Amino acid sequence: MSVLSGKNILLGITAGIAAYKTASLVRLFIKAGAHVKVLMTPASKDFITPLTLSTLSKNAVYSSFTNEEDENATWNNHVELGLWADLFLVAPATANTLSKMANGTSDNLLLATYLSAKCPVYFAPAMDLDMYKHESTKNSFNTLEGYGNVMIPATSGELASGLVGEGRMAEPEDIVSFIESDILNSLPLNKKKFLITAGPTYEALDPVRFIGNHSSGKMGFEIAKAAANLGAKVFLVTGPTHQVIEHSLVEVIPVTSADEMYVEAHKYFNDVDVAILSAAVADYKPKKASEKKIKKKDSTLLLELEKTKDILASLGEIKQNQVLVGFALETNNELENAKGKLKKKNLDLIVLNSLQDKGAGFGGSTNKVTIINKDGSLNEYELKSKTEVAQDLLNEILTHINA
Ligand code: CTP
To answer: Which of 68, 139, 169, 284 fits a disulfide with 305 by CB distance 3.0 to 4.6 angstroms?
Structure first.
């Protein structure tokens, strides 16, 4: 999943020959999971048709304050369009439009929307080489960058005039990756690595049976998604679950048993900044799994179990600078037990869910947690969706990372 997934992108097209490339640009944004609305200057319609763009963007295309052909015309509200957008890209951006943007001229819908937009603004210039080099164009670039707008530089090559030089609009693929990495660089967990364990573990009794538990894996997957959305690279070691996650920053490492989870967790731990162990790991496993299916011979069957390795505690022993987070599911003496685990396993934070709270724990989509810090301070949260709980946890982790 791209960082553009779910984002509202307003694409402003101005009258340059590179406008023909915006069809690909819209398709790439849609493919990345973004919602796209297109705004055109009237003259840009000579270079690409609104029909092409409305078909590709699956949205109406806007180019004037009203629709002149419709006698019941409604007002195309530039303020609403500006507020709808999570980001506004002007591509191709001509010297004329850039100069007007720099000087606050608003004689068309695109320019009025630019002045109303509160979101990040990107512009991809496209013009002939002498225009690109002209002092007045450079002044526009500098002024716009001074406003906090981001320039996606033009490249060199053959231009529509036949001249060769700087001024070609960046290719659509490069514009998309430029914006993606710009967004990533601005995220608070950019370049941080997370190890997250999730789900249950299955401990084999024989080739067809196992001892497991009801963990759905939902909480761990929500944490993985939230961390990746903040820019972290996530290694998600998960036991068997029905959860799915598609995110370019999340690598899923499927495991079955506690032993396998132990091995994978240790493989990644030394290289991460944060480890969050939310998996419901089996505390015991059959001492010996039968190679053949166990037959029902006797009226009772005795199983001999042995302890699994405590993954969290073992990471606590080798911890260097990592922020280590554990979970505790308790039924009684909750706070005391959770604080005990935090200390014993050398954790920085522990997330306590009490089974006495309605809506907390396994299976459901809500959770009610108390997050306890190693300094003894704690935050008790309301009953929330697991998505929101993941956010709360990451906010607490951010304070540890930035400390
Ligand atoms: N955990 C782990 N490896 C295990 C058992 C637990 O990594 N073999 C982790 C869990 O992912 C969780 C934390 O330890 O983050 C707490 O697990 P829990 O089962 O509640 O605590 P225990 O220490 O096993 O104690 P008890 O079962 O007696 O409450």
So the answer is: 284
